[in-house]
Structure to design on (467 residues):
């Protein structure tokens, strides 16, 4: 199904730009998106990081609509790469050589526009052909034009070609199998959700306003949004809007955070006077939410191993006018950062496969490997074992991931409980699983949210109390 992303919404139809303008031409935008795609698909680079690096290093920064177009084309093409690659092979007389991988990315980008956007065909073809010289492939203008026009002409017959489930859904076979085994009732809904372009979710700072009041503020600014019923502070925007120009964003009235992540802070149930550890805290969404929910904490320590990402915690705290102790350190190596004082609450948002956030990070389906799951599970086990001694008696540890795979989730908690007789499983805040609210599907240990079944990302929560 095509998304409503029109050429006229983002840039002038002509390919030339004014010498004095910071606006990129349509071909410039497509060439930039092609470079991003090639880095992700062929060099296995992170999509988010590559996008930021390439956008920041452009000689002309481009306008907000330019960046939106580049992001849409890059992320969309990576999302549907497996399908687009298969269609490309049907349209080429012979495969492209390895040295022309960037050309394969450009053709896939052209096909993405024709299949998944409302950009007029003539504009999509013209601007994509115009991008060929900009990636050093002047000779390929005719080839790109012929391939895209052949697709337009033969689309009905191409649609009838039998393709594997992996190709049709643009998911690797190992992941389809894993989802089917874990969630036989829901696996197809999960895959369909992974292939949707995600909408932006906001967290209302209830120290400054109510959700209802902020919805009215958005409405008065002609910004469409809806409340998410199973998360009391969450709002979902119906259409695209630059985050920094949202009413009150700069002043800390709202933050960007998925509703599933918001539920983690609620489930921790921190109370006044408590000392709290937010492990693996960057970029700071849960840290700041915990402080919004309970400003009277004795202390909140936000721990992250990455100094650059830890800097984002500081930025969020400053924007929201909040205070926490930001510590750079490895949660597994506690001797190097822990001051010896126990914590009443610990939140471990553990490094994981990210199989619950593939809609937002479509490169996961290309970068993740089956062997990664056991390696990640081993690291999660090390984190749990290292941080458990830092919890006071009668304290509470909340373990979360943005994974939907049991090996990282309920099986991880079962293994931990078998090895720690001083721990017992306690479900997170039961108020989150009542009335019209649902934190997720009840598991042997914890709750599991599934994308496509619940609002927001796939997410797991399990509570551990110390005897």
């Amino acid at each position: 199904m095509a998304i409503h992303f029109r050429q006229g919404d983002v840039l002038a139809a002509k390919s030339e730009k004014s010498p004095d303008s910071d606006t990129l031409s349509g071909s410039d935008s497509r060439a930039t998106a092609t470079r991003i795609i090639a880095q992700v698909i062929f060099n296995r680079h992170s999509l988010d990081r590559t996008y930021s690096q390439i956008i920041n290093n452009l000689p002309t920064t481009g306008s907000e609509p330019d960046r939106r177009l580049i992001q849409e084309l890059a992320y969309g093409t990576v999302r549907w790469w497996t399908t687009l690659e298969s269609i490309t092979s049907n349209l080429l007389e012979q495969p492209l050589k390895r040295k022309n991988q960037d050309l394969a990315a450009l053709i896939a980008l052209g096909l993405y526009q024709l299949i998944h956007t409302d950009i007029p065909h003539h504009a999509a073809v013209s601007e994509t052909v115009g991008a060929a010289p900009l990636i050093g492939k002047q000779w390929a203008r005719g080839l790109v034009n012929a391939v895209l026009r052949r697709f337009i002409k033969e689309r009905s017959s191409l649609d009838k070609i039998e393709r594997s489930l992996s190709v049709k859904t643009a998911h690797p076979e190992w992941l389809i199998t894993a989802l089917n085994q874990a969630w036989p009732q829901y696996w197809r809904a999960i895959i369909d959700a992974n292939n949707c372009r995600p909408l932006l979710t906001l967290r209302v700072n209830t120290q400054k306003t109510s959700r209802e009041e902020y919805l009215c503020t958005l409405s008065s600014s002609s910004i469409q949004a809806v409340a998410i019923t199973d998360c009391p502070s969450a709002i979902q925007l119906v259409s695209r809007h630059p985050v920094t120009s949202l009413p009150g964003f700069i002043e800390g009235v709202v933050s960007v955070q998925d509703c599933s992540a918001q539920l983690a802070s609620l489930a921790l149930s921190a109370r006044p006077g408590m000392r709290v550890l937010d492990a693996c805290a960057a970029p700071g969404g849960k840290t700041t939410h915990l402080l919004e929910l309970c400003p009277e904490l004795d202390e909140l320590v936000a721990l992250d191993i990455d100094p650059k990402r830890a800097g984002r915690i500081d930025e969020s705290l400053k924007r929201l006018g909040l205070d926490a102790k930001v510590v750079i350190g490895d949660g597994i190596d506690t001797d190097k950062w822990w001051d010896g004082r126990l914590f009443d609450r610990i939140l471990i948002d553990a490094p994981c496969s990210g199989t619950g956030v593939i809609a937002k990070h479509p490169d996961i389906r290309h970068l993740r490997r089956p062997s990664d799951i056991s390696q990640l599970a081993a690291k999660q086990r090390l984190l749990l074992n290292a941080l458990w001694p830092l919890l006071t008696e009668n304290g509470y540890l909340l373990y979360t991931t943005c994974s939907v795979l049991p090996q990282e989730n309920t099986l991880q908690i079962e293994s931990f409980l078998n090895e720690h007789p001083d721990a017992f499983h306690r479900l997170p805040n039961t108020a989150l699983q009542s009335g019209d609210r649902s934190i997720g599907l009840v598991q042997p240990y914890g709750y599991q949210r599934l994308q496509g079944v619940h609002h927001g990302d796939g997410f797991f929560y399990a509570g551990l109390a110390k005897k």
